[in-house]
Design a protein that fits this description.
- With 153 residues, the protein is of the alpha+beta class.
- It has 2 domains: 31 residues; 112 residues, Immunoglobulin-like (Sandwich), CATH 2.60.40.
- The protein is built from 1 helix and 9 strands; from the N terminus they run H-E-E-E-E-E-E-E-E-E.
- A 5-stranded antiparallel beta sheet has the order 1-2-3-4-5, with no helix packed on it. Strands 6, 7, 8 and 9 form a 4-stranded antiparallel beta sheet that branches.
- It is globular, with a radius of gyration of 23 Å.
């Protein structure tokens, strides 16, 4: 058995505390930073469907703003793509910025066009998603609303 002096015990204790602190910091950094607000399903005649999900940033009212996004996830035998509108709002619901993003999960699909714009209490985006194998087209249109009390939908 190894005997440790008082100074070595203190050094070991400090090292263990530092290690625990680092682990705790990394765990908090991995926490989800958005809140699921709403989710619903849209179905299409051809058997495909879209899951529409609204997220609000967890740091609501940071710098007097509210931020979030609305995802339009299109499934065609599996997740094909996501079309997302992002919005930033004042604390009373006025949209100050809007943008959009596209993530392709099935490479037969591509985004032919897209645009986003702020309008009053909403951030909107629309696009043209095209399946390259047969030119099948979906026109996603996504609007993120903010109420005067700061609730997203």
């Amino acid at each position: 058995m190894v005997k440790l002096t008082k100074q070595k015990w203190i050094a070991v204790l400090i090292a263990v505390c530092a290690l625990v602190s680092l682990c705790a910091t990394n765990t908090f950094a991995l926490e989800k930073k958005e809140i699921l607000v709403d989710q619903y399903l849209e179905t299409f005649d051809n058997g495909s469907y879209a899951v529409v999900t609204v997220y609000q940033d967890a740091n609501q009212m940071r710098n007097g703003t509210i931020s979030g996004h609305k995802d339009y996830s299109y499934y065609d035998g599996g997740l094909a793509w996501n079309f997302t509108v992002y919005g930033t709002f004042t604390s009373n619901g006025k949209c100050t910025a809007a943008s959009y993003g596209v993530t392709i999960h099935n490479n037969v699909w591509y985004c032919a066009s897209g645009r986003a714009w702020p309008d009053g209490n909403s951030a909107s985006a629309s696009g043209t998603m095209r399946r390259g194998t047969d030119n099948f087209v979906i026109y996603p249109s996504v609007t993120l609303y903010c109420s005067p009390n700061g609730s997203l939908s």
